[in-house]
Structures are given as structure tokens and as C-alpha cells.
Amino acid sequence: MKKQIFRRFAAIASACAVMAAAAPVYTVVPAVAASNLISNSTFESGTAGWGVYKESGGSATLGTDNGRLALHVSSIGKVTYAVQAYYDIIPLYQNGVYHFKYDISSTVDRYVEGMIQQNGGTYQAYTWKGLNLTSQPQTIDYTFTMEAESDIMAKLVFNCGNEGDELPEHTIYIDNVTLELVDDSNVDYSTTKPYEPPIVVNQVGYKPENKKTAVFRKITDETTFSVVNADTKAVVYTGNLTGGERNGMADETDWIGDFSEVTEPGKYYITCGSLDNSYTFEIGDDIYNNLLDDSVRMLYLQRCGTKIEDDEFGHPVCHNTMATIYGTNEKIDVSGGWHDAGDYGRYVVPGAKAVADLLYAYDANPGLFGDNLNIPESGNGVPDILDEARYELEWMMKMQAESGGVYHKVTCENFPAYVMPQNETASLIVTPVSSTATADFCAVMAMAYEFYLDFDTDFAEECLNRAEKAWTYLEQNPEFDFTDPAGITTGSYGDTSDTDERYWAAAQMYRATGESKYYTTLESMSASSGLDWMKVGGYGCFAIVTMDNIDKESAVYAKAESRIISDANTAQKNSASNPYGESLKKYEWGSNMPVATSGMNLSIAYSLTGNEDYLTAANEQLNYLLGKNAVGTCFVTGYGTVSPQNPHHRPSMSVGHAMKGMLVGGVNSALEDSAAKAYCAGAPAAKCYIDNSESYSTNEITIYWNSPLTCLLAMTSAADKNEQIEGDINGDNEFNAADLVTLQKYILQRISTVENYSAGDLNGDGILNSIDVVLMRKKLFI
Ligand code: 9MR
Ligand code: 9MR
Ligand code: ZN
After folding, report:
1. Which helix (H) or strand (E) is 143 found in, with range?
2. Which residue puts its alpha carbon closest to atom 9 of ligand 2?
3. What pTM was estimated for this model as a whole?
């Protein structure tokens, strides 16, 4: 067929429409006439770019034969798509006219479907043809117009599964595949280019006393900016733009506007010349309260093995069958714990990291955590954050083998379809004990001992016994031990060394017991960094420097302290030299985690030194997560003006909208899924993020990305809430042991009123109960 004339019109930039899901698209549209959108179309040198998908009993292999793609089908399975040959990530623009052509044949007569479809969602076909194949190659050659909304990650698919007839083994040959955009005169390319706000702020807001900056880009000749009260429209502050420096990681030039002087609580937005206004944000003391609560309650909604009560995300009990220990016929009960992420696996290593963050959050600021999060344990006299952590700890106990070693994970063989948890019903498999899981387990059980002692001595003792058992196992098995058994394709959470895990375990054991053998171990080890699931040395350092009665002159203390300070110095320098303030120099899978954890380390460094620069940098990490970043997105679902609508999170995908209070993984420049490859191709590193549910490498959520957000909020937050003297429940303008007596009498109902109710409500949850007694004792050093 003769080529049609290719017409191209420059896309007309749309007037500044604000889109709900903002992340820029950098698709490079070919500037030359009608090039083939299929990069490997003649199969002269292999199958590159093509793949085979199998499910529901389908079985096939993909190769080439005489310069043709050869799909050898040994079983057609049960459904039409049980065997598919495919080519991924094809840009189709609405109203574009496409020329589609290929040769196809089969060694047996059969029916197949050739189509280009949505990859995800409803899997709608954008173009479709039913084909009766014979051994004689036929050429399919036609043009079609893309009628649906533009989809730049469509998938070319040949359905070669069960089309109704029984079939023997056979081979399907495909060759000379051409797909060209031949007429784009009616294409509006701007629809696939989401909005990049020119003025970027923390969309949730700033605390009055904190440093407050906005980032400005696309500046032409503006030199000043104004802060406007969103209710009264009064300009409350005008300042000068500074900076104007190149930001290589975001490939843009950025100016800064500092409006720290605005401290009056209220709602504001920022204006600058003819640029679009910033999103509205708040200044106030309590602006992170709901966010903090939701960041913890999200973990309740991730609970496994129990019925979940929630208007939107409630579901019946899930994953409550016995699990088989890999390579054996032995079955054990490992029900409970939290689903890890957008998938429903339960993994000890990241679970331990998440629990550690929660306990350090509580440790940093116990007064922030109430008993009213609307979880089943609310009102039981134990802070809900500790109840929530305990749910995971109890599951972890089930993961401890007789030997004291701890199984690495429990999942099904493969990741499930996009279903609710109770509908993942494949058999559960427990993978072997690993030394990393065992050491992480030891560390958090030792931590738990200390934190639950105030509330439930039996449970606390049980935690310590378990920790000791794990420690003994580690002593007896000094080698690093992790195997990822063949055939299980879920997350591996592998490692190459367990030295940092053992350091953390020793530090927590020393802190819990004060025994010299742990101290001796610590003396022999170097203090390492890391507050993630793979590198955990930083938690060991935290344990040491925040321990009561530690000898501050000791080498063990000095090593841990200097590790924290030197990491804080690096993070502070990176943050100060970056217009958006994040401490990162590179963006990997889950980059929001190192943003949050560097903020945690900076907060601890601040508490050790009083150096305000550390606290400022810690707050900058929070500002980044909540919207002051190059993609102009608040990375927590349900917060700010533009936040992820389509997280890779099976419950959200099943229910049809995002669960609230989840921190997504964020920017990842490695483009490790189809959506990231389609939408972020050519994007600068700091902008590789896409709010698409298929983008598990940028838009998934995990328990251990949420937990450092909780911890960062707690660590950066000041505990003081009111004018009264905190703790002065008897109203004598002093806080002392008499207040404790009054509080206890009130709880035992010996007195029916108290002078200053709220002064005694130390965790501010509106209830005077035993939690406040514990907090008051702590405050009085009793
Ligand atoms: O849903 C899975 C997610 O939790 C993982 O982080 C991700 C990477 O391991 O994989 C997701 O599952 C995908 C699988 O790897 C490949 N087939 C499609 C699955 C859903 O996108
Ligand atoms: O968080 C993990 C990230 O650091 C790794 O680069 C990535 C690929 O191995 O896996 C991430 O963990 C995923 C896990 O394997 C399965 N559950 C979802 C996790 C988040 O994407
Ligand atoms: Zn479950």
C-alpha cells in the first residue's frame, strides 16, 4: 500500500488547566514522517521487545524461526488470553490515524485475535480483528482511528489461547509488523502532558515557627512574590525571589521565595506575576494531626488474617489457611501481620523495619499518640500506635521456628491478580529462616520489651524471651544466611550482609537488658548507617544514643553518635543545596523512604546537638513529601491538592479509589515498569514519577514507607499543646507528684472532677486514662 501523506501540526498548548493527577509526560513523538512504532518488526535477530504471557493453564514458548516470530503453543489453556504474544508500551493518541500491518500463519488451522489494547483497567481493545489462520501466511493490512482517550502505554496482543476448539501443539508465525501514525492532524498532544505547577509548596502546610519556602520555576522577569490569605484575599507578605540557579536533577531553573515571617494561622496561596497561583496550603500548629493519625490507621487497614471494619476498605478475614514450609509437607499457622504493600505478601525484614519506626515515633513523642484511632483496640488504655505495632509483633512470633531462627516470609507462589485480600486464595508458602530476618526480629522484640513493659508485663516478657532465643540462634549460626528459593516470584528482600542487622540486634539487646555480653559485641563492631529494610545500622545507632543511662564517654556511644552526625551533615548539605530541599542525590525505587529516614536521622542529630540546621533540614524532608518537589505532588494519598489517585495498591484498585494516608514510593529514575517507561521516558531524574496504578516502581505503597512518615512527623513535632502547665491537673500551677496522685484518683473514680482536665490529658486524645499515668510518670522520672 502506498504511504499516505503525513501531516503534523504543532500541538497547541492548552491554557493552564489544572489536572487532578499531575506528573509530566516526556514522550518523544517522532519528528519524522511515519516511523514504525514497533522497534523489532522483522525478527532477524531475535525476539527483543516481544514477550509471551501465560495463565489459566496456557503453556507456550516464544522464539524465532527463519526471521519470523514463532510462538510455540503446547497448551491453549482455558481462556482466550491464556496464551498471548505481546509487544508493550505503544503510544496511541486520540483521533490519530494508524496504519497497522502484519503477516501471520499457524501450523494448524485456528482462530486467533490480533489487537491493540489497554494494558490494565478494563483491557479495552482500541483495534481488534478476529483471524482464521492457516499455514498459508496472510497479510493483515488496514488503517484505524484511535477513538478512545489517548493511551501512551497500550499493548499489542495476539490472543492465542482457548478460542473454543481443542487444538494439538502448534506454532504461530508472525512477521513484518508495522504500526505507523499516518495522520495526526486531529491529535491534541497536550492532553497527555499533565500540569507542572510553576509555584511549588508543601500542599498540606507549614507550622508557624518553621522555615517556609516555595520554589518558583518558569520565571521570565518576575522578581517578587506575594503570600495571599485565601479567605480574605489580602496580601499578607511580599518578598524577593532568590536563587535562579540551574537544578540539574530536575532540568529546570529554580527560584526560592522565603515567607517564614508569615506565622499567623490560616489558609494561604502564593502569587507571582502572571504565573498560576500555588495551591492553597495552611499555616497552623495542628495541621499534621489528621495526617499522623491516618498514617498509622493505614496499617490497620493492611492487617491480614482478620476481618477489617471500615466503610470503604473493610473486608472479610483473608489468608487464614495453614502455610506450608518450603520444601517440606509441614504446615504451620502464620496468620496475622500486615500486608506488605500493594501486594499481600508478609515479609519479616520490612515488617521489623516498620515496627521499629513506630516504636521510635512513640519514643520521640509519646504525648502525640492517643487511644482513639478507630481501630479495634481503641479505648483499651494502650496508645493505638503500640496496639498496631503489637499486631505485627504477634505475627512475627509465629514466624519464629523452634530453633529460634525466623522464617523470611510468607506469600503465595506468585503475586495475585488485582483482587481484594480475601480473594487471594492460592496456597501460602513459608520460606526458609534467614539471618537477616532473625536479627531484625531480635532487635524489634527487644525494643518491644521496653515499650510494652508499661502496659502489659507478660507480653513484654514474652518479647524479651523471643529476642533472647533469636540471639542465641544468631550466636550459634554466625554466617550470613539468606536464600531465595526457586519458583517463588514474590518480593525477595534479599541482602548481601547481615552485619548491620546483628549490630542493631546487639544494640537493642544491650538497651533492653544492660548485659555486658551485648556491650562487648558492640565494642567489637563498627556503627553503620541505614534506616531501611536492607541497611539497618542506623537503628542500632538510635538505640544507643537514645538509651537512658548510657555512658556517653564510652567508645560505643561515640561511634554511634558520630555515625549519626556525619550522616546528618551529608543530608543537611544535600538538602541546603537542593531547591526542593530533599536530601537525595539519586532517585531509586521507594525514594520517598530515604527522604523520610534522612529526616529522622536529622531530627535525632538535632536532639543530640541542638543545631537548628538539622531540624530545618528534617522539616524540609517533610515539605518534599507533602508537595514541595519537582513533580508538584503531595505523595500521601488523600492529602494536599494533588496527590496519588491511582496507587499500585490492590484494595484501592479493587474499590476504585485511593485509600487515605498512604505514602507512595515516589520518584524512581530507573523506569522499572511499563507505565514509568511510557510516561517518564526522557524525563529528568527528579521527575520520573507517574500516578498510574500500573507503576509499581513509582506509585506503589508499603507499610515501611508509611512508618518513617509517621516517625518523621513525631520527631519533628513539638509536644506542647496549651498554655496551662502541662501535667498540672490539680491546677496549683506546679507540675509534681501531687498531680500524679490526682490523676490516679480520678481514674479509679475516687474523685469525679479535676481542675485542669486537659493538662492531665498528656496524649491529647480527650480521655484521661492509664496512658496518661504512664506519660506522667515518665515526665516526673518516676
Ligand atoms: O504487584 C506487584 C508489586 O507489589 C511488586 O512491587 C512488583 C515488583 O515486584 O510486582 C507487582 O506485580 C507485577 C509483577 O511483578 C509482574 N506482573 C504484573 C504484576 C502486577 O503489576
Ligand atoms: O522496596 C523494594 C525496593 O527497594 C526494591 O528495589 C524492589 C525491587 O526488588 O522491591 C521493593 O519491594 C517490593 C517487594 O519486593 C514486594 N512488595 C512490594 C514492595 C514495594 O514495591
Ligand atoms: Zn491477608
Report:
1. strand 138-145
2. 491
3. 0.86
